[in-house]
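User: My advisor asked me to double-check a structure prediction for Anaphase-promoting complex subunit 2 before group meeting. I don't want to rely on an old file, so could you generate it fresh from this sequence?
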Amino acid sequence: MEMVLEPCTTYLTQREDSVRMIMQGLLWDDGSNDLAAELATTQEPEEVACWNERVTEKPEDWMPDPREADPNKVDKSTRTSDIVTLFIGMYGSKEKFIKEYQKLLSKRLLQTWYGEKSESSEIRNLELLKKRFGEEDMSKCGVMLKDISDSKRINTYINEEYYKKNSLQNNLNLRTMVVSSQFWPDIPNQEYELPEGITKSLELFNKGFENLKASRSLKWLSSVGMVDIELEFEDRQLEISVNPLQASIIYHFQDEDKWTLSELSDSLKIPPTILRRKMTFWLQQGVLKEIEPDNYVTIEKRPGTTSSNASAPAASGGGVVDASEHFVNLCDEEEDEEKANSDEEEEKKKKNEQVFWNYVQGMLKNLESLPLDRIHKMLQMFAMHDSDMQIEMAQLRQLLNDKVQKGLLVIEQGKYKLVRDNS
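Assistant: Sure, here is a fresh prediction for Anaphase-promoting complex subunit 2 from the sequence you gave:
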């Protein structure tokens, strides 16, 4: 496996999705693939296992590698059969895998929360990964799981004790996930103005939380969550789960059956370009209709039906009779999340490249000219303690060649050199 992996290492480490795919394989729920099975296998530390193999399994039959063997290759007697260790060794560090696991765990816990499922499989995965990466390095993930159990207790207290004790009633059935922001990866959130009815329910929940945790306060992620709504029209009834922004859009049609894009944009405090894309969902569901460009109305009765077939009374004021909402404090649409992550990664990449360029300028000012491999080794030394500040040889070559094209560097005899008038 190690011999096969060697020529693939450069390719895999250059792919942005390889670490994510490896971690997804490790977390396979039913353990039906090699990586998940490998993670579940308790391994001895590599050095101990290797030594035990030499001294216990017929040591008299041990044979060294032939004299013509490449000294840079790993001795076959010290090779590991642990697939996970081989993959981690490709990157030279476990930090990338730990950070990717934190992102995956965040998504998986959100999905678990929406489905009201047990997080037992996530607890099992975390315990197995602690054996691989160390308990201290996985401490943030432990806090993330603890937040789930704490959130359940907080919801029970507020919904079953605080409201009854103070004779309060919340119009929405809120099930809120409370996270410790400093321990969780950044959760993409689109800021917008929530409808007044929903805002009042959140404020009521806030009071219960502050009563329980006097020294802490909540910051709501308004676009992150899942909402179960029920819509009633003249000829039909629709039950659907949507994200909070989509729910807030249709909530406005409860009082007014016609809205323009600009009016909705002003009410929700959200850019029209983003809002127009969100409106597409309700158009596809047959709930809204665009009668003119950027003018929307509810479809009370679909073509070809009569009021005698109605499953609910005629709706008043736009068709939304009941919006019983199951609001969660914490997942925007997958496409928006991926776009936000992509933009964030691109911005981070540009920032890192500027840092590398500053280092390269300093090197070339002191040493005048350097070949590509020497620059790469020196950059690795500067960034050896920061896994986010690693740069591959191909990426560095592209960066330096871009500077050559811009007239900031020249190549002389295979060495890069600053242009004389470049400060």
